[in-house]
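In the current project phase, work has continued on tokenised descriptions of protein folds. One protein thus recorded appears below exactly as we store it.

——
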Amino acid sequence: MSMVTKDMVMDQLRKCFDPEIPIVSLVDLGLIYDIRVDENNNVDVEMTLTAQGCPAHQMISQDAAKKVRQIPNVGNVNVNVVWEPAWTPERMSDNARKALGWV
């Protein structure tokens, strides 16, 4: 069985979007805080959202888990949404800033 890597998980998460910002991935928005892959290819993703109380909270985290589950040989997938540290626009990538017209 081949090992799942953090890079493989990040590639899948680049296919996930906040429906209010559909031109920038969760990764480029800086919403992905941590990815852990264990020896059994179980994946834990720690992420946040741009605002607490986001009405798309469930949909976004479920989409992230669904995309990660598409990786061959992946085990269990857990997506945990956290609020600390709080997200700020400084976490966005340069690509995100350009896409949103911030630079």
Residues 9 and 68 are 6 Å apart (CA to CA). The mean pLDDT is 96. The domain at 6-89 is CATH 3.30.300.130 (GMP Synthetase; Chain A, domain 3).
